[in-house]
Amino acid sequence: MSRTKVIIDTDPGVDDAVAILLALASDELEVLAITTVTGNVDVALTTLNARRLVQLAKRPDVIVARGCAQALAGPLGEFEGVHGSDGLGDLEWDEPTIDVDHDDAVEVMRRLIESDPLSIVAIGPLTNLAVLLERHPGIDRRVEKVVIMGGASFEGNVTPAAEFNIWADPEAAQKVFAAHWPITFMPLDLTHQATLGDADLQFLRELGSEVGRRTADMLEPYAAFHDQWYGSRDVYMHDAAAVYELIDPTAIVKQGVRVAVETGGQHSRGATHIDRRRGHAASSTRVGLTLDNARFRELVRERLSRFD
Ligand code: BDR
Ligand code: CA
Predict the structure, then answer these.
(1) Structure pTM?
(2) By residue range, what is the domain housing residue 88?
(3) Is the distance from CB of 116 to CB of 245 less than 8 angstroms?
(4) How many domains does the chain have?
(5) What is the CB-side half-sphere exposure of residue 52 using CA atoms within 13 A?
(6) CB of 272 closer than 6 angstroms to any ligand 1 atom
(7) pLDDT in tens, 95-117
(8) 239-276: pLDDT as tens digits
(9) For 221-301, where are the E strands, in sequence order?
(10) Active site residues
């Protein structure tokens, strides 16, 4: 089986953590690097969290590189953190021994893209990818595929119009969507179909592994947040849905579209305008429409069972 080489660009984040573990457990993927960015928490914490997760998965072969500390337009304003103050649900962790690469995230991406055909799965704000495009014009044409978790058609989650990853850096998102790489993206309309419930948390706990126990512990406060905010303890697995697309490109129904990102707008900064008209059917930008959640849950359970 040929394995898809992947860089995970991320801001862990509880659902990022599940996405990363899912990717690391999957034979279909060869995770080369985890690059971090400010998003759910600042980049010092997202980098620490990436190191914690690589250590948890016992995968010291995976590069961890630190990325951008702030959005292209400057620091994020205050927003309500949904992943705890440390980004991973505020558990106790030993200090990880995994090192951070001496190059920054953008340089690590360039290095890897220039040596191998690979895909990028971007599950945080798109700042690192925008800086990559700025620093290395033409590099977009060397990337096989970019899978993004971001955007929304129906309703946002930070504002009524905007989804967090796009809202956090709309200027970066605009550059990334305008570049010459095939993009498949998973907006909230799709990721709200990918959930784990209490039975899955119990399943993970009962695995008896450190990965199973910690994943369930991280998901517990996330479930409480979902209960409070959405009226159900089922948790949205936004970022794992993007990794699912790379593991099994047939699983998610998709459609060719054109995307414009709102960078102005009194009420709609960070909104994604997704043009689904038939003229874009053959576009290399594709949006995820539907997935089978029973199949998704089964995959997450089976893959996370692979850790000792
Ligand atoms: C996205 O925002 C973050 O909070 C999640 O990790 C996910 O990437 C969902 O809007
Ligand atoms: Ca994320």
Answers:
(1) 0.98
(2) 4-304
(3) no
(4) 1
(5) 28
(6) no
(7) 999 999 999 999 999 999 999 99
(8) 999 999 999 999 999 999 999 999 998 999 999 999 99
(9) 235-236, 253-256, 258-261, 272-275, 285-290
(10) 238
